[in-house]
Amino acid sequence: MPEVTYLEALRQGLREELQRDERVFILGEDVGVYGGAFKVTEGFLQEFGERRVIDTPISEAAIVGAAAGAAHMGLRPVAEMQFIDFISCAYDMLTNYVATARYRAGLPTPLVVRGPSGGYVRGGPFHSQNPEAAFLHTPGLKIVCPATARDAKGLIKAAIRDDDPVLYFEHKFLYRRIKENLPEDGDLLTPIGKARVAREGTDLSIITYSATVWKSLEAAEQLEKEDGLKVEVLDLRTLLPMDDEAILATVKKTNKVMIVHEDTRTGGVAGEITARINEHAFEWLDGPVLRVTAADVPLPYAPTLEDYVLPSTADIVKVARHLAAY
Amino acid sequence: MTARAPVTAPKAAPPIPAGLTREQLVEIYYYLWLTRSLEERLTNLYRQSKVIGGLFRSLGQEGGSVGSAYALREEDFLSPLIRNLGSMLVKGAEPLAVVRQYMAKAESPTRGRELNIHFGDLDKGYIGQISHLGDMVPVMAGVALSFKLRNAKRVVLVYVGDGATSTGTFHEGINLAAVQKLPMVVIVENNGWAYSTRTAQQTAVKQLVDKAKGYGIPGERVDGNDVLAAYEATKRAVERARAGGGVTLLEFLTYRRKGHAEHDAQGYQPKDEIAEWAAKNDPIDRYEKQLDETGWVSAGERAAIRERIDRELTEIVTTSENEPFPEAESALDEVYANPPRLEPLWYRNGSNA
Amino acid sequence: MARIDVIMPQMGESIAEGTLSKWIKKLGDEVKRDEPIFEISTDKVDAEIPAPSAGVLAEIKVQEGQTVPVQTVVAVIETEKGAAITPSTAARAPASAPPPAPPKASPAPAPAAAPAARPAPASVAAPSPSPAMRPAATAAPGGNGTETADERLRRLSTPLVRKIAAEHNVDIATIPGSGHAGRVTKKDILGYIESGAPAAVPLAPSAPAGPSWPPGAPAATNPAWEATPWEGDRVEPMSRIRQLTAEHMIFSRRTSAHVTSFYEVDFQHIANLRAAHKALYEQRGARLTYLGFIVKAVADNLRRHPVVNAAVRGTSIIYRGQINIGIAVALDWGLIVPVIKRADELSLLGIAKTMADLAERARGKKLKPDEIQNGTFTITNPGVFGSFIGVPIINQPQVAILGVGAIEKRPKVVTLDDGTDVIVPRVTAMLSMTYDHRIVDGADADRYFADVKKMLESYPEAAV
Fold this sequence. Notes:
Chain A has 2 domains: about 5-180, Thiamin diphosphate (ThDP)-binding fold, Pyr/PP domains (Rossmann fold, 3-Layer(aba) Sandwich); about 195-325, Rossmann fold. Helix content of chain A is about 40%, strand content about 20%. Chain A contains 12 helices and 14 strands. In chain A, helix 2 links the parallel strand 2 (about 25-30) and strand 3. The longest helix of chain A has 16 residues, at about 210-225. The N and C termini of chain B lie far apart (about 95 Å). In chain B, the strands form 2 sheets. A 5-stranded parallel sheet of chain B has the order 1-2-3-7-6, with helices on both faces. A two-stranded antiparallel sheet of chain B has the order 4-5. The relative contact order of chain B is 0.15. In chain B, helix 1 (about 20-45) packs across helix 2, helix 2 (about 60-70) packs parallel to helix 9 and helix 5 (about 135-150) runs parallel beside helix 6 (about 170-180). In chain B, strand 2 (about 155-160), helix 6 (about 170-180) and strand 3 (about 185-190) form a beta-alpha-beta unit. Chain B has helices spanning about 20-45, 60-70, 85-90, 95-100, 135-150, 170-180, 200, 210-215, 225-240, 270-280, 285-295, 300-320; strands spanning about 75-80, 155-160, 185-190, 195, 195-200, 220-225, 250-255. By secondary structure, chain B is of the alpha/beta class. Helices cover about 40% and strands about 10% of the residues of chain B. Chain C is of the alpha+beta class and about 475 residues long. Chain C folds into 3 domains: about 5-90, CATH 2.40.50.100; about 150-250, Dihydrolipoamide Transferase (Irregular); about 260-464, Chloramphenicol acetyltransferase-like domain (Chloramphenicol Acetyltransferase). Chain C is built from 8 helices and 19 strands. Chain C has helices at about 150-155, 160-170, 185-195, 240-255, 270-285, 290-300, 350-365, 440-455, and strands at about 5, 15-25, 30, 35-40, 45-50, 55-60, 65-70, 75-80, 260-265, 310-315, 315-320, 325, 330, 335, 340, 375-380, 400-405, 410-415, 420-435. In chain C, strands 9, 12, 15, 16, 17, 18 and 19 form a 7-stranded mixed sheet that branches. Chain C has a 4-stranded antiparallel sheet with strand order 1-8-6-3, with no helix packed on it. Chains in contact: A-B, A-C, B-C.
C-alpha cells in the first residue's frame, strides 16, 4: 500500500467521488485553474472540466447559498472555503438557510462545506481558526474533523454521500506532515458519528480530535515510558453528531478523563463533552473531567505568542499527571 | 331604387397582446382576485386570532406577482417574497395550503414549522423564502446553476424588494449568477417602502434598475401595476435567460398600500399618497377597466369568477379552522435525513411542551 | 347552541394589550361571519375586528374605552337565534395568556394550545443517579467546625469510589487513601476489597465522623491514657483486618445497648443423636457437629421471633426477609464471619455441608465478598477453646449474637419418676445471647431462646 499524505488522501477522496457520482461538483475560490490555495484540487479542472470544478467570485455567502440551491435540485456540491476562517462570512446562509432547510421546508440539502482550519503555522488570527464551536449548537448541520490521512479520505467520501449538510474541517498543519499507507483499491469510508480509539489504555482517557490527536498520542507515549501510565486516546472524528457511546465507554473503562482541543476554552466543545459525561457517567468518575485548550485570546502571529497560546504536548502530559494522581 | 340605411359593423375587440389567449386572460383575472380575496380572508382570521404570527399583505401589488409568474413555463422555478402570494398561486400553490400554513395546522406544507407563505414545492417549482432578505438570491442562483450544469432549458425567477437590494447576499447572489451567466431573472419590486424606510433612504441610485449596470447585466423598468406589461417584460427576460443570455434585472414600479404587516399602522406613510395610489393606480382596477374597454372578458364572467372564489375560500377557511395543530413531539422529526427523528430530552418523556 | 368567544387580538410582536375603542354592534344584534363588530386601538395600529362566526352578540364583557390584555374575551356570540342575552358584565380579570409572537425577521415560535399529544416513545434514559450515599456535609473552607472540602473528599472520595463502596458495603473512611488530599482512590478501594476484609458498616446518617479510633482522625483523649512504646517493647503496625476488627468492636459497643442473657442447654439428646448418625453423615461427606444443630435450631426459630433477626435504621426497624447465619471463625490472621445464606431453607445436612465448605475456604482465603456479607444473626463459639461462657459483642448491623460455651459433661440434678432426685452426668453447655436492647427486650430474647432450647433438647430424630 502506498504512503500518502493527509492532503493527498483528501484529494483522492474528492477525486473518487467526482468519478463515482456525476452529481458531485466543486465550487469555491481558486479551486479550478489554480487547483486550490493548498492544491487540494490540483488537476481537477483538467480531469473533470469546468462544469464540475467552478471558480467563483469572493462570495462565501453566495457560494454556500448556491450550493444549497443546487443541492435542492439533486446535485451534490462540495463548497470550499479557502481558509475556514472565512466560513463566518457564510454564517447566515449556513445557520439560517442550510441548517433549517429540511426541517422547515422538507428541502434536501446534501452539501459539503470544507476548508483548512487550525494553527501552529504562524498564520495569525485569520488563517488559523477552529470554528467548530460556532456551529456545534446549530441543529441540522453535521461536523467532521479528520485527524488521520485515512479519515481525511474516508470522511470526505462519507460527507459527500451523506444526505445532510456536512461541515468538513480539515487541518492545514496536518496536510503534509502526516502520512499513512492507504489501500489503493476498495471504497474507503469512515462512518460519520463514530469515534475511533487511537490508542488503548486503562488508567486515563484523553478525548480529542483533529491535530491534538497527535499531540495526545505523543503525550501518551511519554506517560507510558516515564510514568508507566496506560493512557487511552479517543479520536472523536465527528463532532456532530458526537459518539456518546464511545465517550461513555472510555469513561467507564478508565474512570479518569481529560479533553484536549486546539480551539479556545470558553464555549469550546470540551464543555459540551464534559456536560454529557456529567449527565450520563457521573458515578464512573474517579476524578474531575479536565480540559487542555487554547487560551481565550485571538490567535497571535509571533511564534513565541502562538506557542504560548495553543495547547502543547507538555500541557497534556502535565494535566494527565495531575489527573492520574488525583 | 330604395335607399338603405348604412350598416355599421360591430366594433371588433382589439387583439390580445403578448401572444396570450382569452382563456389565459381569464386565468390571470382569477389569480388576481384569488390573491386579494385570500389575503382579505387571512386578515379577518388574523384579527380573530386564528392566524398566528404576522400577516403581510400585497394589496396594490398583485399585478406584478401574477403577471410575472405567469410568464414562466411549468418547468421553471421561482422564489417568492412575502408579498408575492400571487406568484405562488400561479405556480399552483393551493389556497388551502396557504390558509393551513398561516394557521399553523399540522397539515400545513411545513407541518407547522414555518409561518405565512414561507413554504415551497419542488414539484410545482417554487422554493419558499426565509426571513433573511437577499438570501434567496444565491439559493436561486444555485438552482439556476443546476440547470446550467445539466444543460436544461429552465429558468429561475427570484423576487426581491427595494430594501433587499441593500443586503450582502443580494449582491453576492446576483454577482455570482451574472458572472456565471446563469439563467435567472431578478425582479426588484420597488413599492416605495421597506417597513418605514423610503427607497430614497435605502440607496443612492435614482432608479433601482441602475444597479443592473453594476453587475454587468441588462435592466428594465416596468409599470408593475399593469399586469400585462409585467407579463410581457418578464417573458422577454425569461426567454432571454432560457436562450443563454444570462441574468436580467427588472424593476417593477408599484406601491405598498398597507403597512409593513397588519400590525403596522403605517403612520409614516402619507395618507394622501396611499389614497392616490388606491384611487388611480390599483392593478386590479386597471385590469378590470382594460377588460371593460376591450371586452376580452365580460363583466358577467368576471362576477361569476369572483363569486366562485368567494365560495371556495369560505369552504377552505372552514376546513382549515377545524384541523388540529401539529402533535407536540413531531417537533423532533426531520432535523436530519439521518437520523430522521431525535430523542426527547430525558426529563420530557412524552409531555407536551 | 354554541357560545363563541370573541377575543382581543394581538396585532404585533410586542403588543400585550389593546383598547376597545368602539362597539360597532350592540348587545343582541345579529352579526354575520367576518362582519366588523368592534374597533380596537393599540400602540401600533387601529383596526376593525370582524366576527369570528355568525350569530347573535349575546354578551359584552369589555366596554368602550377599556384596555385589556391580549387574548381577553371581550364578547360572546351565540350561534343560534333567540339566544338569551346576558347583561354586560364588567371585564373579567384578565387571563394571563402568553402572547404569540408574530414574525418580523426571525420569529420565535408561539406556544400553541396543542391538543392532547400521543404518548411518546421511550426517551433517553435518565442519567443514572449516583448511589444514595450519606448526605454531604457542607464543604466550608474550614474554620467554623463544618467539614472542609478536603475532609469531605477524604470521607466521600469520588462518585466511582462511592459506588464501589456502596456495592460492597464498605466504609470509605476506614480505608487508607493514597490520592489527592488523602482521598481513597479506585485502586485503594479495589485493593482493599480484594484482600477479603470483612464488610464494615457504613456510618449511620446522623453519626458524626467515626469513632475515635481509625487512622487519620485525631483522638480527643487525655495524653496520660495514650499508649506509648517503652524500651523493650515491640511495635508492629496492625494488619488491615485487625484494624477493621478493632474499629468494628468499638463501634458496636457504642451503637447497641448490649445486654446478655445466659441459658443452660442440655445437649445429651443431641450427643446421642450424634453418636447414632455420625457415620451416616461422614458417608454423605459432612461432619455432624453440635454447632450444626445449634445453627439449625437458631435459624428455624428466627421466623417466629423476627425482632431478633432485625436491624436498626435511625428510628425504623428493618425486619430482615432472609435468615443468614454468620459463624465467627478465628483464623491465624484474624476473625472472619462466613455467612450461611438462607439457613432456614437448609436441612441439617445442608447446613453441615455448607459450614464445612465455608470453613475450608475461609482457611484458604478463598471466600467471595458475597459470602462474608449480609448476615442477619451471628453465632460465636468461645467454648471451642474451653471457655465456660462468653459475653459476645454484637456483629453490626445485627441485633443479636449467640455465644456457645464449652460443651462437656457436667453434673445435673434429675428427678426420677418416683420423685427421687439424683445427680447424673449430662452433656451440657452454657449459651449466652447478647442482644440490642434498643429493639430487643428481655422477654423477646427469652421467648426466642426458650424455643431454641426446646428444639435442641428434643430434636426430632427424623430430622437428622
